[in-house]
Amino acid sequence: MDVNGISVVITGGASGLGAGTAKLFSEKGAKVAIFDRNLELAQSTARELGCAAVQCDVAAEESVIEALQQAGEINGTPRILINCAGIDITGRTATRGGGPQPRDALTQQIAVNLTGTFNICRLGADAIRQLDSLEGEEQGVIVNVASIAGLDGPFGQTAYAATKAAVIGMTLPMARDLSGYGIRVATIAPGVFNTPLAASVLRGEPDDYAGSVPFPKRAGRPAEFASMALEICQNPMLNGEVIRLDGALRG
Ligand SMILES: NC(=O)c1ccc[n+]([C@@H]2O[C@H](COP(=O)([O-])OP(=O)(O)OC[C@H]3O[C@@H](n4cnc5c(N)ncnc54)[C@H](O)[C@@H]3O)[C@@H](O)[C@H]2O)c1
Predict the structure, then answer these.
(1) Is residue 250 a part of any domain in this protein?
(2) pLDDT at 147 exceeding the cut of 90
(3) Active site residue 160
(4) Most exposed of 33, 109, 111, 225 (fewest Cβ within 10 Å)?
(5) Is residue 179, in this structure, part of any structural domain at all?
(6) How many domains does the chain have?
(7) CA 192 to mean position of chain CA atoms
(8) 105-125 per-position pLDDT tens digit
(9) Ligand 1 proximity of 37 Cβ (cutoff 6 Å)
(10) What element of type H or E holds 190?
(11) pTM to 2 decimals?
(12) Is residue 16 part of a domain?
């Protein structure tokens, strides 16, 4: 799909990978709406990029319904949904000093990373399904964001990895479910990227982690993630697939 003139929603677009994607898609002529829980940051990113900011908590159904409605009024019903909103709560399953990991570590991450992604996909896809057909063969594209942790998770990431493995698991059945409506679904599984989230999880500069990356020996850049999201939108044969983007980093 040529993204020029297309209405695009990018969740978590106020920061990190989502902000990098909002920048590239805006440069390519897409009509981008950033959906983020943090409205102030979303507005400042949107001002810089010349796109729209909409407050949205992806975990809350009502908030997603309202935000999709708002995006529709601003840019037209979104045909491309890019799900970058996510949180990462680290901690080991049980430790001598700390006892069992709090159950909330899992439930909070399920709410945002899994339910949040599913909310945007199901509500957004239902709206795309009802749009007039575009010329050509496809009607919409969904790009979900997992993590290599969902494939080979490191220490302290059991709960996060479980939510990301679930996003990976949704990819093929969702692509099959939506195929009859010309909507493709693909998932990016990033390695370590230079973002505020990675800096807080790694407690330092993501680039300092680069020794473990075979090549290139640095953290990924949001622009490189954005370029993969754009390729997924532009290449009609990419469907039902999970793509690692990690410089050959393995857990
Ligand atoms: N940065 C990495 O190294 C890396 C690696 C693998 C996967 N990921 C995944 O990529 C995605 C983006 O991460 P990032 O590194 O850009 O993080 P980030 O913290 O820079 O950006 C995440 C954004 O999501 C927003 N957000 C959080 N909860 C939300 C909610 N409930 N509703 C709406 N918005 C919400 C935050 O406000 C923030 O703006 C996440 O899903 C993350 O798990 C990141």
Answers:
(1) no
(2) yes
(3) yes
(4) 111
(5) yes
(6) 1
(7) 14
(8) 999 999 999 999 999 999 999
(9) yes
(10) strand 183-190
(11) 0.98
(12) yes
